[in-house]
Every structure is written in C-alpha cells, then in structure tokens.
Amino acid sequence: MPTHDTPTCTAFDGHALVASGTLAEVALAVRRLLDRHPTHTPLVFDDATGQTMEIDFRGNADEVLARLQPAAGNDAPRGAGRPRLGVVAREVTLLPRHWYWLNSQPGGASATLRKLVEEARRSSTAKDRARLAGEAADRFMRVVAGDLAGYEEASRALWRGDRDAFNRLTRGWPKDVREHARRLAAIARDAQAEAG
Questions:
Q1: Which three-class secondary structure state does DSSP give residue 174?
Q2: CA distance 168 to 157
Q3: What are phi and psi of 67, to 5 degrees?
Q4: Which long-range contacts (CB under 8 A, 24 or more apart) does 68-73 make?
Q5: Would you list the domain boundaries of the chain?
Q6: Is 82 exposed, middle or buried (CB count within 10 Å of its CB: 0-12, 13-18, 19+)?
Q7: Nearest to 131 by CA among 12, 50, 23
Q8: 9, 53 Cβ separation under 8 angstroms
Q9: pTM of the complete model
C-alpha cells in the first residue's frame, strides 16, 4: 500500500482495467470512458483499503475534478480559542472502573484515550499494515473476481501467504484482474513478512 500522502486508486470496468494512479488521474480516465460508453458502470477502488470509492461523474471533466477537491472554507482563518483538531465525537462504552481511571488521568478521559490509541498504533504498525493490505486485496478480489473460478481458494492462499498457490489459482483470470490481484497480494505478503 502506498505510504505517501497521495493515495492511489484503480478503476475497473468489469474485468478491464481503466486506470491506476492518483484519484484525479483515475477520475479523468473514468470520465473519458463514460463519455464513450455512458451505460458502463466502472468501479473505482482505493488501493490502500480495497473499498470502492463514490465519485460523482456528472458533468464535464472540470466539474468532476472540482467535486474531488475538499470543500472551501476548511482552511479559513479561525478566531481565538482551541485549535481545530479534527476530533470526531463517538460513543465509547466502558465499565465504571475504566471511566474512573480515565477521569483520574491528567487531561481527562479524552486526552488519555487519544494517548492510548497512539501508543497502540505505534506498537502494532507492522501487524496492522499486514492485516490492512490483506483486507484490501481480498476486498478487491471479492468484488471483481468473486465470480471467477478459483476465487475462494485464491482468497485462502492470499491469507496463508502462499504465493505459488495464489499464482496458480489466478492463472486463468482475465489479465487485468489477475495482474492487479497479484500486485495487491504481493504488497500484503511483503507487509506480512515485515510484521514477522
């Protein structure tokens, strides 16, 4: 998976690769495909997660690209007060003794939870990267190759890290699907090897 700041994605039209690259590059390629074939329904996959991405392809290329940009106003200057941290409120359910301990920590429950999460992220980075890479490959395969011969066995070979079996089981898949699945599987295997 890309570890840089510019995430990559890949678009497929059925079993045919449309484009792979930055979101803007892929969106433009899909827009051109839809100009030629308006009834097609290509899928765009986030390479890091394997999840499909929702993109509004209505209008011309400039309009599609404009909708990909973050909403204006997010960078507007702020007045005095606490800086915007991008904090998201969610419900957390804990036992009373956990709440008591959290509330007794310097900074309170929220600050302590953030610190604990950051420590956990640092200590399990390689294992998490391996798991996420495997999940990304498996999601892509489920959506695009789920109806192909050998899919279930290939998925099991992916999770076992069995490269030879995976390559054998994907040999009969359409070229673009096979090559992209193998690329994602190689990333997952590398991450598994790094995690030990």
A1: coil
A2: 10
A3: -75, -15
A4: 68/23, 68/24, 68/27
A5: 8-68, 125-195
A6: exposed
A7: 50
A8: yes
A9: 0.72
CA atoms within 13 A on the CB side of 156: 5
pLDDT tens-place string over residues 4-27: 446 799 999 999 999 999 999 999
Closest CA to 141 of 163, 168, 170, 175: 170
Buried b or exposed e, range 64-77, using 16+ CB within 10 angstroms: beeeeeeeeeeeee
Q: Please report which residue ranges of 37-162 form alpha helices under DSSP H.
A: 61-68, 96-103, 108-123, 125-140, 151-160
In this structure, the chain runs to a length of 196
* β-strands 16-22, 43-46 pairing: unpaired
Of 116, 120, 134, which is closest to residue 194 (Cα–Cα)? Answer: 134
What token pair was written down for 67?
């909708």
Q: Tell me the pLDDT tens digit for each residue of 54-66.
A: 999 999 999 999 9
Angle separating helix axes 125-140 and 108-123, nearest 10 degrees: 80
User: Residue 159 CB: number of other CB atoms within 10 A?
Assistant: 15
User: pLDDT tens digit string along 107-161?
Assistant: 888 888 888 888 887 777 878 888 899 999 999 999 999 999 999 999 999 999 9
Q: In sequence order, what DSSP letters do the residues of 117-132 get, joined into one string?
A: HHHHHHHTHHHHHHHH
